[in-house]
């Protein structure tokens, strides 16, 4: 790719790097502070199995806060309306819990449920869209090809 002065910005001006964490649901091994520090050098965010963010009693594992300390956004995966784990009564309550926890995005197989949960969980009038380096990456589900619902976070 060659670029002329005044032409398109460099790829780093609009590409966002997400580090997918291994599916560590059995032992619930969370990345260490050193591992997160290393990831923060090259990545803008984390893609994590949703079970890495909450304990079995629905308390935060601390991973989201640790990512925030390193200015990393967090996208959790995969939410399904037909496969809701205990203790959640349904997909809407599960998703709403994660939105209230503060995840920046979710991968979903049933986006209509995620949109309803987001509206129920977040205050009215809250802006949806992730801002990275001064640009909006995904503003709404309708603009996403991958079924990601984004709430708001800012990366300095």
Give a short summary of the structure:
This protein has 156 residues and is α/β, with parallel strands linked by helices. It is built from 4 helices and 8 strands, in the order βαβαβαβαββββ.
Q: What can you see in these coordinates?
A:
- The chain has helices spanning 33-42, 63-69, 91-101, 111-121, and strands at residues 18-20, 45-49, 73-79, 105-108, 130-132, 135-136, 148-150, 153-155.
- It has 156 residues and is α/β, with parallel strands linked by helices.
- The strands form 2 sheets. It has a 5-stranded mixed beta sheet, covered by helices on one side.
- The longest helix is centred in the middle third of the chain and has 11 residues, at 91-101.
- The relative contact order is 0.13.
Mean pLDDT: 74
Low-confidence stretches: 1-6, 127-156
Number of strands: 8
> Could you tell me the strand content as a percent range?
15-25%
Order of helices and strands: EHEHEHEHEEEE
Rg over alpha carbons? 16 Å
Structural class: alpha/beta
How are the strands of the largest sheet arranged?
Answer: 1-2-3-4-7
Helix content: 25-40%
**Count of individual helical segments:** 4
- What is the general shape? globular
- Write down the oligomeric state: single chain
Main beta sheet strand tally, sense and closure: 5 strands, mixed
Distance between the termini: 28 Å
């Amino acid at each position: 790719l060659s670029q002329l002065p005044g032409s398109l910005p460099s790829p780093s001006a609009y590409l966002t790097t997400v580090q997918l964490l291994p599916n560590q649901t059995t032992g619930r091994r969370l990345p260490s502070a050193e591992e997160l520090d290393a990831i923060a050098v090259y990545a803008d965010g984390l893609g994590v199995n949703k079970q890495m963010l909450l304990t079995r009693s629905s308390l935060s594992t601390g991973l989201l806060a640790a990512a925030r300390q390193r200015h990393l956004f967090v996208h959790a995966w995969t939410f399904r309306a037909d496969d809701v784990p205990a203790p959640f009564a349904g997909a809407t309550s599960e998703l709403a819990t994660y939105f209230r926890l503060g995840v920046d995005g979710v991968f979903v197989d049933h986006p209509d449920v995620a949109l309803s949960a987001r509206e129920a969980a977040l205050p009215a009038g809250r802006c949806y869209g992730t801002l990275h380096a001064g640009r909006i990456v995904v503003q709404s589900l309708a603009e996403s090809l991958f079924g990601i619902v984004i709430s708001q976070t800012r990366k300095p």
